[in-house]
Amino acid sequence: MFGIGPLELVVIAIVAVLVFGPDRLPEFARTAGKLLRQVRQMVSNAQNDLRNELGPEFADLDLQDLNPKNFVRKHLLEGSDDYDDDKPVADLSDSAPQRLPAGQKPPYDPEST
After folding, report:
1. Most buried residue, 16, 48, 83, 107, by CB count within 10 Å?
2. What's residue 59's pLDDT?
3. Cβ distance 83 to 77 under 8 Å?
4. Whether the model pTM is above 0.90
């Protein structure tokens, strides 16, 4: 959860009790919960409004697909059996043609004729 471990949660709880006091802490937690619900509802409404405004062509729009990493994974690597999340995408720098110094001719390659 947000990269917070159990020890950090205990420290946050102790600081919250010291700052807000044990009598005001439940009221603060209720207010924070209401605020979180309102923010989630606003995000959900914004997504629904966006889908409605874009029309039926974009009815299956998922905002996570707009992330460039997810876009590449979905559209370019979809169906690739050898795709691995930990492996970088193809590095084309090794396959680029090499430039020769001025005046030097490339070596003869009998397979290219």
Report:
1. 16
2. 73
3. yes
4. no
